[in-house]
Amino acid sequence: MTRAILTIIAAIFSFSLMGVAVRILTADYSIFQISFTRNFFGFLPILLLLAYSKQLAALKTPFSRNEWMICAIRGGVVSLAQLFLFTAYSKLEFATVSTLAFSGPFFVTALSVPLLEAKVGFWRWSAVILGFSGVVMIMQPGASIFSLFSILPVLAALCYATSSTIVKIFSADRLSGVIQFRSQIFAVLFSLLLWLGFGEFVPIATAGDLGLFIGLGLLGGAGVLGLVVAYRMSQPSLLAPFEYFGIPFSLFLGWWFFAEAPLDRLFPGVLAIVTGGLVIIWRQARAKPGAGS
Fold it and tell me: Does the predicted model carry a pTM greater than 0.90?
């Protein structure tokens, strides 16, 4: 259990460091170029996972047309999520972006009803309402500090939630590494098309920038790999609360790298987001199959 907790905390810290690399690179490079690089290097940890599990041969497994379609949708929405999230990093305080992105569990809960025909009861719907109220408190629509860019992390969370929800349509015998690899193919293709259509190629100016480009891909991939490994080692309901370490991580990194400390903006909304997320985790751990909670 301790090993699983340390693994998931390390994975969340990797995602936070990736965000720092993105924020720095957006000063000189296209969001589309950054997104493509992230997805391209994202193949490496997936291949490492399959090799570690001795499942590389499973990449030859045939998929149906519908399964390929799900992979394509996942790749597309992940590419959009990255554009929303990376743009937000360039426009808002680092910790504000990361905190608003934690609205994902509320979208997952809501989307599971129409997409998976899941039953969601009073407690989880109440948690969704509480969580989104926290999002609104942080965004502060109507206030002088409100920015339309604050919508972008929430849209990114919606896209990531869509990807996380529709992956459950696959049958249980499909290996997660194979699904992720094939979804990653489409993420690379979509991000490349978006880059060619709307972005521009900016030559990498320094060795430091090259290191950041490689690093953001490896950090993001390592984060995904860490989550997969951690959730295989222990019960998801026991590990999920540790994902909220991402909020203090983002506060520290935002202060350390960018001299930001948006505490006045984040509180009390962040408490509502974390509380709502923990309630969802609690009810999912207690729920019986087929029962709403």
Answer: yes
